[in-house]
Design a protein that fits this description.
By secondary structure, this protein is an all-alpha fold. The protein contains 24 helices and two strands.
Length: 591
């Protein structure tokens, strides 16, 4: 059976499973649609949370970043896992005890303000649509390569699947679909890793293979990788180039952003009891750890295989190291997607692959007829292409395709439902039409989800960067806008509505403005190329991926200062904070 046929079968079966679950778990009330009727068990919620959070950035892009960045890519591992500790300890149980449907609803009640609710909705929509752009890019990459259809067609198919189980099943349908998607994506991620670990090191456990010796030699994988990449002019794989300040800020932005992501927070509203919220966060960490401890091995083995496939030996070497050979089959296949490009600059029909941004190295290579790096590889393809590069069986490649789609669709569905709830529950019912009936609110939620899916599909046609890069921006926005006011709302009774509103707007506008200025995301979409500025102009040396930490600090500072300059919250609000924070007599009843 051909790879394309096998991929259609595997992906088609997974789609049939998702749709079947959505039909089985169809939402019949707003409680089902928004929070799955608060009836999800902790272990199922842990799996659903893991799938919701392990998006295309985790499955597709993170190992690709590690493959090319090496040590610098560790910030994504530390930040995206560490955030769950903050979430489990500081937010999840308290928000579950509050017992409402959405994050903006908590902010509205805690800060006794419809304006605060509207600002929270604006922050939520900014975060969610930035995040969902990365997911739809992941869907497009998988479809364009493995199903060999146009990216537009692939996005439409992905949108149709999400529409079916998100609009029909709501949170109830999404939750149980995400349980299935977690099983698909984790199997699809670990099986190829085991195969490749055996190939390279004879050790079937990727986490151990990462530190093992290459089969048939006494050289460790990482040592060999260091030798290879430095011989081609690239930075040493096991040492970083980022400043400590930037590493710290990116890690903190990802951690705090994880704890402030609305589609993750809402998961803890779906369990029966407060204790279950904390337990399900623990399960989620366990399920996430399976993929995240495998990712460094996947990234390093992908980089090793990439270079050895392109340059397996020392033919025509410069200083005994550089080499170039005829194009392997996988490069020709991926060139059709536009995510790998080969430009034969010297007309010899072979690949010259090295770091031509290294001026001293490029000058040395030029003496031997080199005219610049001829190969460009999109970082987002490394996990998907790795089985092909390693020559694994077609069924493994098809499985990876299904896993990549599952990772992207699971998170996209969660984000779209959060956007839907923000429109139907927080704006329509909470602000504009408080008397709307439950059936009409449910209909409004489904219509809002449908429109959100259309916008998400549009963003997927021309996303603003690599999947993990775009997602990092979303985490920065979440860290700077929602996390501080939620944390202050739980632990600081003195913070009032004026402080919360001012803090959210300050954090959001500063962080978005910084990202826009240095990355020019929307300017790039409009065709203006000047948005890329040099790192020397960054504030305190902090990259746009890490600036959410400064935005969060500004949010905290503004909220506290403004609150102390204005009237304190009413007594009933302060009592509500006490009730949320202190589990008196194990009281699990919501406010």
């Amino acid at each position: 059976m051909s790879l394309q046929t096998l991929t259609y079968v595997v992906v088609g079966l997974s789609f049939a499973l998702y749709i079947g679950i959505a039909i089985w778990s169809r939402a019949h009330s707003t409680g089902d649609f928004y929070i799955a009727g608060k009836g999800v068990s902790p272990i199922a919620n842990g799996m659903a949370t893991a799938a919701d959070w392990m998006s295309a950035a985790s499955f597709i892009s993170m190992a690709g970043l590690i493959a090319f960045l090496g040590y610098d890519g560790s910030v994504y591992l530390m930040g995206w896992t560490g955030g769950y500790v903050l979430l489990a300890l500081l937010l999840a149980p308290y928000l579950r005890k509050f017992g409402k449907f959405t994050v903006p609803e908590f902010i509205a009640e805690r800060y006794y303000s419809k304006t605060a609710r509207i600002v929270a909705v604006i922050c939520l929509i900014f975060i969610s649509f930035t995040y969902v752009a990365g997911q739809m890019r992941g869907v497009g990459i998988v479809f364009s390569r493995f199903l060999e259809v146009d990216v537009t067609v692939g996005l439409v198919i992905g949108m149709a699947i999400v529409f079916t189980y998100a609009v029909l099943g709501g949170m109830k349908g999404i939750t149980y679909t995400q349980v299935a998607q977690y099983c698909v994506l984790i199997f699809a991620y670990t099986v190829p890793a085991i195969f490749i670990a055996l190939q390279i090191t004879n050790n079937p456990i990727p986490q151990l293979a990462f530190g093992s010796e290459i089969a048939g030699s006494d050289t460790a994988l990482l040592d060999k990788l260091d030798d290879i990449v430095t011989s081609l002019g690239f930075n040493q794989y096991t040492s970083g180039t980022k400043s400590r300040v930037d590493v710290f800020c990116i890690t903190m932005a990802l951690m705090v952003g994880t704890a402030g992501l609305p589609h993750v927070i809402v998961r803890f509203f779906t369990v029966p009891k407060v204790r279950d919220a904390r337990v399900s966060a623990g399960y989620a960490l366990l399920f996430i750890a399976i993929l995240y401890t495998t990712a460094p091995a996947v990234g390093s083995m992908a980089r090793y295989n990439l270079i050895n496939t392109v340059q397996p030996g020392e033919i025509g070497a410069v200083d005994g190291n550089l080499a170039y050979v005829d194009r392997p089959e996988w490069i020709e296949t991926w060139q059709n997607t536009g995510l790998v490009s080969f430009e034969d600059k010297n007309g010899d029909g072979r690949i010259q692959y090295y770091d031509d941004s290294n001026d001293s190295f490029a000058a040395k290579a030029a003496a031997y007829g080199w005219q610049g790096n001829e190969l460009s590889v999109d970082r987002d393809i490394m996990v998907l292409a790795n089985p092909e590069i390693a020559g694994l069986p077609n069924w493994v490649i098809a499985l990876v395709a299904a896993g990549g789609i599952a990772a992207a669709l699971s998170t996209a569905a969660g984000l779209l439902l959060v956007i839907s709830a923000a429109v139907s529950h927080d704006l329509i019912k909470g602000i504009f039409v408080p008397t709307i009936s439950e059936s009409h609110e449910l209909l409004a939620g489904r219509i809002a989800a449908a429109f959100a899916i259309l916008i998400a599909g549009y963003l997927g046609f021309d996303p603003p960067g690599w999947v993990a890069q775009v997602v990092a921006f979303a985490f920065g926005l979440a860290a700077a806008s929602l996390f501080p006011v939620i944390l202050l709302g739980i632990f600081f009774k003195r913070v009032n509505k004026q402080g919360a509103i001012a803090g959210m707007l300050t954090g959001l506008l500063f962080t978005y403005g910084y990202i826009e200025f240095f990355k020019g995301l929307f300017l790039k979409w409009a065709g203006a190329p000047w948005g890329e500025n040099v790192a020397s102009n960054w504030l305190f040396g902090i990259s746009p991926e890490g600036i959410g930490v400064i935005g969060a600090c500004l949010n905290f500072a503004v909220a506290l200062v403004v609150s102390h300059l204005t009237a304190p919250p009413p007594d009933r609000v302060q009592q509500m904070v006490e009730h949320i924070r202190v589990p008196r007599h194990f009281d699990e009843n919501p406010i």
